[in-house]
Amino acid sequence: MARYEFGAGLADYVVTPSDGLWAVGAGANVTVWDAAEGGTQYTDLQDAGGTAMTSVRADEYGGLPRFFGPDEVTGMWADAGGLARAWIAAHNLPTSGGTDESSTDWLNIRDFGAVGDGVTDDAPAIQAAIDAASEAGGGTLYVPAGRYILSAALAWASNVSAIGAGDRVSILQATNQNLDLITGTDIGNVTLQGLQLSGPGRGYGSAVRFTRFSAPTTPNITLRDVLIQSMGGDGVFCHQLASSVMHRVRVRSCGGIGFHLQAPQDTVLGGTSTSLVGCSAEGCVVAGYWLDGMSYTSLSACAAQGSPTGYRLEACTGVTLTACGAEQCTTGLTVYGGTGANAHGFVTDGSDGTSVWVTEAAAGVVLLSVTEVAPVAAATACLRTDTGTVTTVLGLTAVKPNSLAGTVNILDAS
Q1: Among 19, 262, 335, 386, fewest CB within 10 Å belongs to which?
Q2: Contact at 8 Å (CB) between 268 and 244?
Q3: Contact of 142 with 160, CB cutoff 8 Å
Q4: Three-state SS for 310?
């Protein structure tokens, strides 16, 4: 008899409705059943360490931890107390011959010749591991502690993930200043976790560059506990990103944009349904966060520091910033066109220009409890709204004067 592994996957998250949108179900208690409705609850479960349990509890980000189901059960219906159950499937299913091949799901890059001594060029070995996982239909690469020198970009593949021993010890070090570190076109279902992606400190390369050419979107991309630094270009560039998450990703000292999510409006497609949680962009030359054409996307508890623009929402639809902040940025937040941008609990500290700027006919902008703190003497305005824009403001704390044009609905008692 065999128990199969569940949880800790790309889709293993609990979401709950929140003010008409969706938020992660932090700490949700999840039971599992043998039917979409009614049926019998499975209570013979085990956690990752083999301890018996009857239900599973999501972490603070709504993610289900790794756990094991009852003997020989390969799929179950998960119930988090909502109106419907969701199907979850085991990760380590047996092959058609009946043999459990779960060990092949994990490939150690050192088994392919990677050294990680900070001297050897490990790009060919790691690329071989990626290719092997891809040819097998997918898998997870384990990146042990070490500094892995890369003279060439790694061409990533769909359904291939990489997990390191931590962003301080599992380091992929790019040495070619004009090449990206990790690239991929028309790929999806990729997780990068517990890694440091470090660049040569100059040039044009980005740490992660996922682009779309013929596929509808770039779906199901997860970056978690990743440190990116010293790239000549963007920290993260993703084109047509969809149904993706970035949790605790830190970008430092890059020559372009920290997080650049692009979904051009000249196509019928678009980037959508993406969340950034607990991310930070520090000292990026162009901007901390630049979302171009994204829809139904949220940034929560994110920070930007030391960039000309902290956050730029360009031609976006339904993008929300919650408890985010910008420090020592010329402009903390720019809403450049688009509809339905929201900033709740947004703080700018030390701005030397305009704390929040709404322009290019942006409509449906809502600013709730936005606070300006200690702008420098040369700063010109707290809130600037241009002609043709529509903005609603509640609870604005301004130090510098506001420059208001267009339609501005101020709901304060004053």
Answers
A1: 19
A2: no
A3: no
A4: strand
Contacts of 175 (CB under 8 A, 6+ apart): 149, 150, 151, 200
Question: Which residue type occupies 403?
Answer: S
Please state, in angstroms and rounded to a whole number, the distance separating the CA atoms of residues 237 and 257: 8
Can you tell me which residue has the tokens 């979302």? Answer: 291
Q: What is the DSSP code (8-state) at residue 363?
A: B
Both tokens assigned to 341: 């941008």
191's enclosing H/E stretch is strand 190-198
pLDDT digits (tens, 9 = 90+) for 111-160: 999 999 999 999 999 999 999 999 989 999 999 999 999 999 999 999 99
The residue among 2, 167, 30 whose CA lies nearest residue 91 is: 2
Amino acid at residue number 173? Q
**Number of helices (H), then strands (E), in the chain:** 1, 44
Write down the residue that tokens 């990680």 correspond to.
116
How confident is the model at residue 88, as a pLDDT?
85
Q: E strands, 55-138, where? A: 56-57, 67-71, 75-79, 86-89, 106-108, 117-121
Q: Name the residue among 287, 293, 179 with its Cα closest to residue 238.
A: 293
List, for residues 102-112, the tens digit of each pLDDT value: 334 789 999 99
CA atoms within 13 A on the CB side of 115: 9
Q: Which amino acid is at 237?
A: F
Tokens of 395: 């609870």
pLDDT tens, 151-181? 999 999 999 999 999 999 999 999 999 999 9
Residue 275 DSSP SS3: strand
> For residues 283 and 334, what is the distance between their CA atoms, to the nearest angstrom?
18
- Which two structure tokens, joined as six digits, stand for 250? 């830190």
- The answer to whether 393 and 367 have CB atoms below 8 angstroms apart is yes
Structure tokens at 2: 């065999």
**Can you read off the two tokens belonging to residue 5?**
């592994």
How far apart CA 313 and CA 240 sit, in angstroms, is 15
Rounded to an integer, the average pLDDT of 323-329 is 98
Q: What angle do CA 165, 168, 172 make, to 5 degrees?
A: 80
For residue 186, the number of C-alpha atoms closer than 13 Å in the C-beta half-sphere is 4
State the pLDDT confidence band at 346, using cuts at 50, 70 and 90: very high
State which amino acid sits at residue 354. Answer: T
Closest Cα partner for 167 from 225, 109, 235? 225
Q: For residue 17, is pLDDT > 90?
A: no
Measure the CA–CA gap between 328 and 160, rounded to whole angstroms.
Answer: 38
DSSP bridge pairs for 208: 182, 236
